[in-house]
Sequence to fold (294 residues):
Amino acid sequence: MKDKVLKLGLPKGSLQEATFKMFQKAGFKVSLSSDRSYFPSIDDPEIECVLLRAQEMSRYVQDGALDCGITGNDWILENRSDVIRITDLVYSKVSMGKVRWVLAVPESSNMKSVKDLKNKRIATELVSVTKDYFAKNKVKVEVEFSWGATEVKVNAGLVDAIVDVTETGRSLKANKLAIIATLCESTTQFIANKSSFKDNWKKNKMEQIALLLKGAIAAEGKVGLKMNVREEDVKKITALLPALKKPTISGLTGSGWVAVETIIDENVVRTLIPALKKAGAEGIIEYPLNKLIY
Fold:
């Protein structure tokens, strides 16, 4: 039925590739017919997708043009959107990690605190949040919207300071800028329209998608290990395993051997497998994970 369709907004731009990869690991094949297309296809007839900039996603979800979407918490705050945050989607391996919006000034400047920026000009893409921050601190400033290349504007003498997004701060440091305050932190969010979330079918569909996405994220950077172990070596082997909870141990046909299975961080495999082999494990198998549901 036509009414059994969930309208889903996916972010175009810096989050697009990471989002498509995340959905694929979650079990959904999302693709575009061309680079200019704004309507991705998805192998689920109950979902209709549209690509939008993350900056405006929350407005369309709030207004009901979309049932749900993926965007940053920063843009929800910027648009003052009244939406439901279903879950965080922190996918740090592919540019969906936690970021900060920071106030930065020239390293050579005498401005060391927020109060020092009285009557100064600030450039940022996050205008509303920046205005709210300075108003809260009772500091009068001029805030202007920046269309890009925000870091360059201070050294070019166009503005006195900037509010910009950063993960590590390295780019700001490279531009000889010093961070003097953090305005907010942001993670990628799966959000829903409030009316849509009251619809039982849509709510269940969104929660299913959220569960699978979280499972895909949880599995990132982890692998499964299987091995055969003599019964007398079990304690020695399990002592080496940094298991998610406890390894699964099951008996094998024939006496004296068991199968051990566990989930571990991928970055420890190269040192762990030789240690397991030395401790008596045999038939060691490493396999990738698509989803990990807690």
